[in-house]
Amino acid sequence: MKKGNNRVLIWLMVLMVLSCKQSGTKDQSTATGPATAKSGQPYSIDTSETVLQWTAYKFTNRAAVNGTFSDFVLFTKGTSETTNVLSPGDSIVINTLSVDTGNGIRDDKLRRYFFQVLHSDTIKGTILEAGEETGKMSLEINALSNTVDYRYSRKKDTLILTTGIDLSDWEGEEAINSLNRECYELHMGPDGISKLWPTIDISLKLPMKIDSVAR
To answer: What residue range is the signal peptide (predicted)?
Structure first.
């Protein structure tokens, strides 16, 4: 009986050791890099849920004015095994007449005194380089094309691309001055100076979806 009890104790100790090793292995397998599609199914961009936002600035202390465009088309080449699905050649075409700030009077002034003066019914962006977290894209505004850097991050299953531009690089000074003249008092801050900045921040939120068809 004594030998039998010893054997039981030995087996219990072996099982405890194996259990601890399995638990440690599971913890170490936690993913920290780009998410991989479940069951080998690749990701693609849900273009119907993509959101484009921009932020302009007025006053000398740079008060933010936020807006979006309700009409744009996103062209992507296909799918990827991770959520880093952007690739060279992907592009976006924006209808500037669809500008939306939540204020109809302001939107009309933007169309008439900014975009028409800028001679830009559309804005086109094309991905040139796509790295793990950064890349380069060409941006065509006012019949001029410039290369800009962008960054992107992932929040759950949404890819967020951000960049900043200076409209002076697209000869946008005339359009900025035109809008500032029309909105002179509205752009005047507490210091009595009317100011509209040429810099704009842009954010593109790209929801990911698992493509159950592509293999």
So the answer is: 1-23
**Helix ranges restricted to H, the chain:** 2-28, 104-110, 116-118, 173-182
CATH class of 39-210: mainly beta
* Mean pLDDT score, 168-188: 97
pTM over 0.90: no
Q: Is 187 helix (H, G, I), strand (E, B) or coil?
A: coil
Hey, which bits of the chain come out as E strands? Answer: 43-45, 51-58, 63-69, 72-75, 91-95, 99-100, 122-130, 134-141, 144-155, 158-166, 199-210
Characterize 160-197 residue by residue with b for buried, 16 or more Cβ atoms within 10 angstroms of its Cβ, and e for exposed.
Answer: ebebebebeebebeebbebbbeebeeebbeeeeebbbb
